[in-house]
Amino acid sequence: MTVRDIIADFLAQGPYAVVGASNDRSKYGNRVLRAYQAKDWKVYPVNPREPTIEGLQAYPSLASLPETPRGVSIITPPAVTERIVAEAAEAGARFVWMQPGPEAIRIARERGLEVIADGSCFLVETRFRS
After folding, report:
1. What CA–CA distances, in Å, run from 66 to 23, 82, 92, 114, 118?
2. Are strands 95-97 and 52-53 parallel, antiparallel or unpaired?
């Protein structure tokens, strides 16, 4: 599958999770979460330090979500991303969308996840304007 095909499949249906979601509206984790909300897509914010984000209950981990996310947007530093990729696979996710990180990409592919990490931007793909 090409990256374009993977993106189209990712965007076709949820539910989704945003790991690194934040209450700070200037941060990408918040903007990505709001992009999902703007599309009225089912999305779960994941942040162990926040009880709610943008009016949604936040969860401390992917394992704590009430259902399996099909797609996971990861907006975390590279060392954290590697751990989150493994958690996404363990949680049963099918896709991860993240910024490039060779080790995280390797871990994701090794665990059978479809990876979007070519620099494609979720905000651009969903035409989100904050």
Report:
1. 21, 23, 13, 22, 30
2. unpaired
**pLDDT tens string 28-69:** 999 999 999 999 999 999 999 999 999 999 999 999 999 999
d(CA 122, CA 2): 16
95-97 and 71-74 as β-strands: parallel, antiparallel, unpaired? parallel
Q: Quickly tell me which residue has 């590279």 as its tokens.
A: 78
E strands, the chain, where? 16-19, 43-46, 52-53, 56-57, 71-74, 95-97, 114-116
How far apart CA 56 and CA 58 sit, in angstroms, is: 6
- Measured CA to CA, the distance from residue 65 to residue 21 in angstroms comes to 14
Stated pTM of the model: 0.90
110: part of which helix (H) or strand (E)?
Answer: helix 102-110
| DSSP single-letter state for residue 37 | H
